[in-house]
Structures are given as C-alpha cells and as structure tokens.
C-alpha cells in the first residue's frame, strides 16, 4: 500500500522531539496514543534506539502505521496495536504516554476516559505528554486556532479545542499533575503531566 503522509508531522517532528527528548531516557517504554500515520513513531524511535516505542490507534489507521513501521525496520518499535480510548486499552504499564494532535479530535467523554485510563497504566513517576492546541482563560490563543476550531466543529460538533483549565482538572482527578506547559510553533503547546498516584 501507499504509506499515508502528514505534512504537519513532517514539519513538527524536530521541534517536538527537542522538547520531549529529556523524557526519552534509556530503557523507557513509550505508549503512543493515536499514532496516526506512524511518522512520529518511526522518527522518534529511530533517533532513540535505547527506548521502546509502542504505536497504537483505532483499527482504521493500523494498516498505514504498519506500513511505516515495516519500511523503517527499526528494532525498538513494537508492532502497532488497536487502541480506542473508549474501548481498548492495554493491561501493561508504561514509563511514558505520548499523543499528538488527538485531543481536539476527541469529544469530551473520550478525553476524560483517556486521562482515567492513562493514570492507571503509567508507572510511578511516569509522564503523559500531550501536543496540540489549547484554549486559555476561556479564549483562543490566535485567530487561526479560532478558525481551526470552527472547522473541527463543522465536521464534528462534538470535537474542538479543549480548555487548559478543564484539562488540568480532569487530569488531577486521574492522579496526574501538570508540571510544564511549553509554547510551540503554530499556536500549539506541549503539556507535560506526571503521575502522582503511585501505580506499582
């Protein structure tokens, strides 16, 4: 098959990696939620051969991710598996969870469930890293984000850019605390949350 391709993944992979690199410590096992095309998985794992990267996504994206992973033939990328945040979650615990450009696609219930399940599958002191756009103080951070949100809601009224205050509240309920909020290009952010409800 022709591999799926995301221009935004190609454009943001370097700057995302520069910010998450301190958390990609040797031996870390990373679960990526919503791997999309698989481009991030291949790029991050290739440049960090001492971590293990586990891609996942809904069933309709698995073939495309598999094409990227197979072509890359990088030994530290595990075979992609199905993960629907409202249904399928692994029983394993991970050092790090990572997701990019997924929360604004999800509805509120899916985001809440994602935090609940993420909190229970992170190892103690593990981190959840989220990349994407967010609103602050009830406001869009840019006109482009406002237009993007309108487009999202036109395609799916239940989707849309989430408010950071709400994210922090539901994350706290799941035992996760925001420890860093990093400004990124194109009006995006990287949120770093740490698991503070210890899971053995």
Write the layout of secondary structure elements.
Elements: H1 7-20, E1 29-32, H2 39-46, E2 52-57, H3 62-72, E3 81-82, E4 94-100, H4 108-121, E5 122-132, E6 134-135, H5 143-155, E7 162-163, H6 164-173, E8 176-184, E9 188-195
Parallel strand pairs: 1-2, 1-4, 2-3, 4-5, 6-7
Antiparallel strand pairs: 5-9, 8-9
Description:
The protein is an alpha/beta fold. The protein is 35% helix and 26% strand. It has 6 helices and 9 strands, in the order αβαβαββαββαβαββ. The chain has helices at 7-20, 39-46, 62-72, 108-121, 143-155, 164-173, and strands at 29-32, 52-57, 81-82, 94-100, 122-132, 134-135, 162-163, 176-184, 188-195. Strands 3-2-1-4-5-9-8 form a 7-stranded mixed β-sheet, with helices on both faces. The chain has a two-stranded parallel ribbon with strand order 6-7. β8 (176-184) and β9 form a beta hairpin. The longest helix is centred in the N-terminal third of the chain and has 14 residues, at 7-20. The mean pLDDT is 95.
């Amino acid at each position: 098959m022709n591999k799926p391709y995301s221009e935004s993944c190609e454009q943001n992979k370097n700057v995302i990696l520069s910010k998450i690199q301190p958390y990609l410590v040797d031996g870390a096992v990373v679960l990526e939620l919503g791997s999309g095309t698989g481009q991030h998985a291949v790029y991050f794992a290739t440049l960090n051969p001492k971590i293990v990267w586990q891609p996942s996504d809904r069933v309709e994206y698995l073939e495309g991710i598999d094409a990227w992973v197979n072509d890359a033939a990088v030994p530290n990328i595990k075979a992609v598996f199905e993960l629907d945040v409202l249904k399928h979650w692994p029983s394993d615990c991970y050092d790090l969870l990572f997701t990019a450009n997924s929360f604004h696609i999800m509805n509120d219930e899916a985001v809440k469930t994602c935090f609940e399940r993420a909190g229970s599958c992170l190892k103690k002191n593990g981190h959840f890293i989220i990349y994407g756009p967010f609103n602050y103080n009830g406001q869009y951070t840019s006109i482009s984000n406002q237009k993007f949100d309108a487009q999202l809601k036109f395609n799916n009224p239940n989707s849309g850019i989430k408010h950071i205050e709400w994210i922090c509240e539901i994350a706290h309920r799941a035992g996760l605390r925001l420890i860093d909020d990093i400004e990124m290009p194109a009006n995006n952010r990287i949120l770093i949350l740490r698991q503070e409800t210890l899971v053995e």
